[in-house]
Amino acid sequence: MEVEKENTASTITAEPSLPASDGQDTISDNASLPHSIQPVIPPVIAPSVVPPLAPIPAIPPPRPLAPLPVRPPVIRPPVPQNGKVGSSDSDSDNDDSNGRINQGTGEYEVSEESRLVRDRQEKAMQELMMKRRAAALAVPTNDMAVRARLRHLGEPITLFGEREMERRDRLRMIMAKLDAEGQLEKLMKAHEDEEAAASAPKDEAEEELQYPFYTEGSKALLDARIYITKYSLARAALRIQRAQRRRDDPDEDMDAEIDWALTQAGNLNLEFSEIGDDRPLSGCSFSRDGKCLATCSLTGASKLWSMPNIEKRSTLKGHTERATDVAFSPVHDHLATASADRTAKYWNDQGSLLKTFGGHLDRLARIAFHPSGKYLGTASFDKTWRLWDIETGEELLLQEGHSRSVYGLAFHRDGSLAASCGLDSLARVWDLRTGRSILALEGHVKPVLGISFSPNGYHLATGGEDNTCRIWDLRKKKSFYTIPAHSNLISQVKFEPQEGYFLVTASYDMTAKVWSGRDFKPVKTLSGHEAKVTSVDVLGDGGHIVTVSHDRTIKLWSSNTTNEQAMDVD
User: Fold this and answer.
1) Where is composition skewed (Pro residues) in this entry (predicted)?
2) Among 100-114, 244-258, 360-374, whose mean pLDDT is lowest?
3) Which carries the bigger pLDDT value, residue 224 or residue 73?
4) pLDDT band with cut points at 50, 70 and 90 for residue 179
5) CATH code at 219-559
6) 22 backbone dihedrals φ, ψ, rounded to 5°
7) Is 51 exposed, middle or buried (0-12, 13-18, 19+ CB in 10 A)?
8) Does residue 308 have a cis peptide bond before it, meaning omega lies within 30 degrees of 0?
9) For residue 436, what is the enclosing H or E element?
10) How many other CB atoms sit within 10 Å of the CB of residue 104?
């Protein structure tokens, strides 16, 4: 039994080495036992070989997170301010556009840019709420009621150039603002005042509204208006009588006369060319009898020339700045000049100075004589035009109405109307007898520089920087024809002064053009200048046209000459 136990123990202890020795050690041990004892040895079954498992690596513990970086305060040297050294602990110079954290207090500070953006947003929101509140308010639709409400609220009843709808919108915004500010008492008081005024007796209401709505003029202006009224009525009666006679007379052939005048205009050729001054020329004008020509230039001097050979007679010196225009009187041989020195001067034909008209606040542009020869009109860059008495030199009228500089001025042939044009792209027609603006001609998209009345009494021509010439019918109060006249701005326009059979335009494209007064078709192009054409004038019979330019030359165009050779500028 002991042997059995030992055999069993040896067998058990040998099992771990079985895969290496294949049981040889066990068999050899059994062979040494005595033959009398033969133990039963069970068959040894080799255990299955299980490959050893790979060791599971140990999971390292998670590393602690790094602490958030803290921006250290920027230490800057103290900057002297007003002689004192100051220091600041704030980080105001950072490039953070939204804000920063104050290191001292730990509070978030909004940057200036963010504050401005927030202010703009708040302002836009306030405007939106104001418009919503205004849309909910009840505003009178009658213009007289709107004016009354504005008067009771202490606001101007009308602004310059304000229309009915604009006035109503202004009242709506004022009421919305008062409502937003909590001033309902003022609104209620204004409403009560309106009701009281509506229920008041008629006589009391009329006595309340008795106040002057105009600027009272001088006695000289009143006398001038009376004279202009009488003068214009007589001239208008003669014009209408002549038109009726020509219409009813079977021997009168209007179309034939117009055709003859347009044929003469089509035969215009360069007759004379003369150097006018050392600097560019700015204006020209024929005398009433056509025997004298006046020009002015940027030197400030004006010159008189004899016709038709353009020979210099005299020089008019008196302006301290450049001359801008010159015009002959329609009744005698006196003339007037305008200048950038803010004055206009009146001369006789001998070159003697008779009057100086001063009062404008800025340089003058164009000037024009009233058909009676008693008054002179001047246009200026101070946004006004003025009427002067030739005999006394007194300023009769200071007329406002343009929002920008006034450049051109013209008088109706009857003397009743004046027309002005300016850099506000408008032309206005004024009644000299009453002082009212009777027409505002809107159509040009750029400044209007030239204006002229037709002798027929109802057509008006304007030209400007939009390169077009517009023809206005005063009877219909609108433009009925637009001429795409030039490739550059139109500096001046002039109707043929006797019948208005044709129209002449001068332009900065170095040409002047003649247009039919019947259908406004092109008749003739006057080419010859080498620079901008600044001014043009037409002789009374329509047989001569004069142009002046920045090339310093005076050119006389005539339909009577047989010489068709273009003369050299020199």
Assistant:
1) 69-80
2) 100-114
3) 224
4) confident
5) 2.130.10.10
6) 60, 30
7) exposed
8) yes
9) strand 436-442
10) 10
